Amino acid sequence: MVAGPWLVLVLVGCGALELAWRLPPRSGAGATGPALHAWPLLAAAAVGSGGLAALSWTAFKVGALSYGGGFVIVPLMQADAVDRHHWMTDGRFLDAVALGQVTPGPVVHTVAAVGYAAAGVGGALLAALVAFAPSFSFVLIGGRRLRRLRGDRRARAFLDGAGPAALGAILGAAVPLAAAIGELWQALLLAAAVVVLLVLRGGVVPTLLGAGLIGALIVTAGGPLPA
């Protein structure tokens, strides 16, 4: 995906453009509070400190910015886990995504695998907790206001603008994941899965489990295991 870790800005920007198009800003709008300007400094401090602070910041971004589904946040997560902090290789990150897809709670399980690679079992538990906290807090605190928010023209305008960008982000997430494929038999399984899902209209879960079983049989029979 071209946007890579900046995809969240793309989503927010598309939503903001749609909002501005439908509802031009009123004159005399107040300026943002000083607390808003502190977030870039906190983010920079967390990333720069490394270790558990960097892991917590990555997990928080995954939990708080997964608009449009878990795959939307994959390039951002991959940029942190593989390119920036080197907790995992591309192949191991692809395994983490696969683990998330064959278990309930795909985003939390994937970021937990990233946390395990960064700091063992404690890192996995920390990453899962931090990633789960934003959505849990959103529902717990704002649940009573969700119905009102659904009827708000400004909220609908923002979501209508961000929605198409989210679809593009989900599609674009397949690019860095496909690039992590290291063995020929994986590429053949990818092609077979595309045919089953898009042409034969097969189910997602049977396709995932079937491909996983075939991969296990290939490696058991002596096939190469991806690095």
TrEMBL record:
Q: What are its GO cellular component terms?
A: plasma membrane
The residues that cross the membrane are 38-55, 62-79, 113-136, 157-178, 207-225
Main localisation, per the record?
membrane
Q: Which UniProt keywords apply?
A: Cell membrane, Membrane, Transmembrane, Transmembrane helix
Magnesium among the record's keywords? no
Please verify whether the record's keywords include Cell membrane.
yes
What Gene Ontology terms describe what this protein does at the molecular function level?
chromate transmembrane transporter activity
Indicate where this protein resides in the cell.
Cell membrane
Q: How does the protein associate with the membrane?
A: Multi-pass membrane protein
What is stated as this protein's family in its record?
A: Belongs to the chromate ion transporter (CHR) (TC 2.A.51) family.
Name listed for the protein in its UniProt record? Putative chromate transport protein CHR family
